[in-house]
Design goal:
Number of domains: 2
Shape: globular
Bound molecules: adenosine-5'-triphosphate, magnesium ion
Distance between the termini: 20 Å
Radius of gyration: 22 Å
CATH class of the largest domain: Mainly Alpha
Helix content: 25-40%
Structural class: alpha+beta
Largest sheet: 6 strands, mixed
Oligomer: single chain
Strand content: 5-15%
CATH superfamily of the largest domain: Transferase(Phosphotransferase) domain 1
CATH topology of the largest domain: Transferase(Phosphotransferase), domain 1
Number of strands: 18
Number of helices: 11
Length: 440
């Protein structure tokens, strides 16, 4: 297989603060062991089977949906033109993802640009997540159909090869649009994506035959079709929700640095409210244009939640954390609603967080609101006051993103209330940025 190694020339090292690294913790309360293979998950309710590479045992492990196509390795090698670097769409913890072309209704490879375009994810044998996650992906995604979940077309299991074949999502990941592209995503598109992703989670939590906790909600797992409809991908960490009168699922702590709910990191108790927290982090990334963790920011701004939380509920201050690249092209009412919603989702007490169906209802009107800040006299006055005051003080400090000024470190905004021991859910988890390939 043309491994990612052959594609490394395309790896983009220029983006700071890449946080898309899974972490695994041997026990919830012990120190994290970064870059360790994922250990079997001990859970009260889980459909994730134990790891094995034996193809024969596979059929016992996999309650696979019959509509999935079963590919041979050579099918996929040819479909991706030998996994060539030009076909590389991206790289994650599981392995590399390549663009390919297959017959509309079969498994045979076809000429590029014809038939069905697919994304082929290859399991890196040395990868962190391995067979168990491959299996979980087939098990969950193979049995779940929803417009806001990426469609799993099929899979390949042959000797040591483990591959997954998805519908191709032409606009790539939300991560790419928020943090890599030079053109900022317009406000209404951001709200449309937030709504679509929320519907995906609401389906998993509240509408699926058996509730599912997604556990890996983050911008790189939100893929976009040609019309910016959001679809969730990557079910490798998904878990069946608690059954009967159980309130949570006990698992080893896994997820992605910067997105996991604090109580889950502390206790290993997983509930659908852990996903709601992660949704809050992603909504905040969309509002601010900042990554959930970014070590290249000034002190006090590394952790997005910690930095933004004090501003979110405040009608007069929330706009200070909004992405300056929006340049006033956002709905004032919509931005306030979204900021308040993010604050609720990020509540330290999981019980206070809304259900995803409530999140969907709150978000529904937001993409269509037209009270743009750029045409508001009050907003423009505030903006010019801000830039005047920052010009006056800039001589003694460093101008920050939102036009505010810092003096030798922490910004002048009040951050004191967020600097407590629980302010940073993952502060004890060492980040492990990994290189990331560019999308096509
Ligand atoms: N179906 C798809 N269509 C188009 N591009 C895709 C598709 N699936 C994945 N990609 C691209 O490949 C990249 C890597 O995906 P992958 O899910 O392997 O890793 P990740 O989400 O970036 O990181 P992690 O392994 O931590 O979840 C994605 O960010 C996306 O850009
Ligand atoms: Mg992913």
């Amino acid at each position: 297989m043309g491994s990612c190694m052959s594609s490394r020339s395309r790896v983009d090292h220029s983006v700071s603060g890449r946080t898309g690294t899974h972490y695994a913790e041997s026990e919830p309360t012990k120190e994290n062991s970064r870059d360790q293979p994922v250990a079997p998950v001990s859970s009260t309710t889980t459909s994730n089977a134990e790891s094995t590479s034996s193809t024969s045992k596979f059929s016992e492990e996999l309650k696979v949906a019959s509509q999935l196509r079963k590919f041979t390795f050579i099918d996929l090698k040819l479909a991706t033109r030998n996994f060539r670097p030009e076909s590389l769409l991206g790289e994650g913890g599981f392995g590399c993802v390549f663009k390919g072309w297959i017959e509309e209704n079969g498994t045979a490879p076809v000429k590029p640009g014809t038939g069905l375009t697919v994304a082929v994810k290859t399991l890196n044998i040395d990868g962190l997540q391995g067979h168990k996650e491959w299996l979980a992906e087939v098990d969950f995604l193979g049995n779940l159909l929803h417009p806001n979940l990426v469609k799993l077309v099929g899979y390949c299991i042959e000797d040591d090869h483990r591959l997954l074949v998805y519908e191709f999502m032409p606009r790539g990941s939300l991560e790419n649009h928020l943090f890599r592209r030079s053109l900022p995503l317009p406000w209404s598109v951001r709200m449309k994506i937030a709504l679509g992703a929320a519907k995906g989670l609401a389906f998993l939590h509240e509408e699926a035959e058996r509730p599912v906790i997604y556990r890996d909600f983050k911008t790189s797992n939100i893929l976009l079709d040609a019309d910016y409809n959001a679809k969730l991908s990557d079910f490798g960490l998904a878990k069946d929700g608690p059954e009967g009168d159980k309130t949570h699922v006990s698992t080893r702590v896994m997820g992605t640095y910067g997105y996991a709910a604090p109580e889950y990191v502390m206790t290993g108790h997983l509930t659908s409210k852990s996903d709601v927290y992660s949704f809050g982090v992603v909504l905040l990334e969309m509002l601010t244009g900042r990554r959930s963790m970014d070590k290249n920011r000034p002190n006090g701004e590394h952790n997005l939640v910690e930095w933004a939380r004090p501003h979110l509920g405040d009608k007069r201050r929330f706009f200070r954390v909004l992405d300056p690249r929006l340049e006033g092209h956002f709905s004032i009412k919509g931005a306030l609603k979204a900021a308040q919603l993010a604050a609720q989702c990020l509540s330290r007490d999981p019980k206070v967080r809304p259900r995803m169906s409530e999140v969907v209802e709150t978000l529904k009107p937001l993409p269509n609101l037209k009270d743009m800040a750029s045409s508001s006299y009050n907003f423009q006055t505030m903006q010019s006051d801000r830039s005047r005051s920052s010009n006056l003080t800039a001589k003694n400090g460093i101008r920050t993103q939102a036009g505010f000024v810092t003096r030798n470190g922490p910004p002048m905004r009040s951050l004191s209330s967020s600097n407590g021991p629980h302010a940073s859910p993952c502060h004890h988890l060492p980040p492990s940025p990994k290189p990331k390939a560019k999308e096509q």
